[in-house]
Amino acid sequence: MARTKSIHNRAELIEEAAVELFSRYGYERTSIEDIAKHLGIGKGSVYLEFRTKEEILMRVVEKHALKIQAMMDERTENIKGSPLESLKETFLMCALMVYDYVTRDFHTPEALLYTSLQFKPRFSAFYVRKRERVLKFLKRAAEAGEISPRKANEKTAITFLMGAASLFPPYFNNYTESEQRMTRDELEQSAKALLKILVDGLRESNK
Fold it and tell me: What is the pLDDT of residue 175?
């Protein structure tokens, strides 16, 4: 036990183990004791880092949100060429990045950021930041003459996000009779088509 207490990255190891177990068995069916056994440590070592199982879950989802946010921030701050094309490429990257995270298994915890209403208040900053990034793309597009300045507002940003929402979990197509989850290739093709429609619609509004 003394050796366990000296591990500097213990919290990270606990998070990784939790992700694996949450993804395999689900959050409700995974206990602190399960996580400790998976790592070969005592429950007390887990509690030294996290007060509750929910705290571990929140940290896992927070790290996912920060990775998505960092990618969008980097793309927004380094727009090259057409802002609208960059917006389209950014959301394609974002959709595929999220898909790779949340389809590892049926219970993948990161999916809760997109599917659970209970998570929205806890991660309100994530949604606000996402909307702000889209708005910045729109303002840059207006400066470049790609869209009308009157369209570079929060309402348009929200409308764009509503249109793009189907690119994120859950990955069941509600518009066909299929009961199968979309594959990555299917998502990519649908994302390209949908984003083209959304961006072309923004351009059309400039006429």
Answer: 64
User: What one-character DSSP code corresponds to residue 181?
Assistant: B
CB 82 within 8 A of CB 144: yes
CATH architecture of 2-47: Orthogonal Bundle (1.10)
For 117-121, the CB contacts below 8 A with 24+ separation are 119/61
This prediction has a pTM of 0.85
Helix, strand, or coil (residue 159): helix
The whole-number pLDDT of residue 118 equals 87
Q: Find the angle CA(127)-CA(103)-CA(65) to the nearest 5 degrees.
A: 25
Output the six-digit token pair for 85.
């094309």
- β-bridge mates for residue 42, sequence order: none
Domain ranges of the chain: 2-47, 58-204
Task: Judge contact between 195 and 91, C-beta under 8 A.
Answer: yes
Tens of pLDDT, residues 118-151: 888 999 999 999 999 999 999 999 999 999 999 9
Evaluate if residue 46 carries a pLDDT over 90.
yes
CA-angle at 154, arms to 153 and 158, nearest 5°: 125
Distance CA 164, CA 183 (A): 17
CATH architecture, range 58-204 = Orthogonal Bundle (1.10)
Question: In angstroms, rounded to a whole number, what is the distance separating the alpha carbons of residues 126 and 113?
Answer: 9
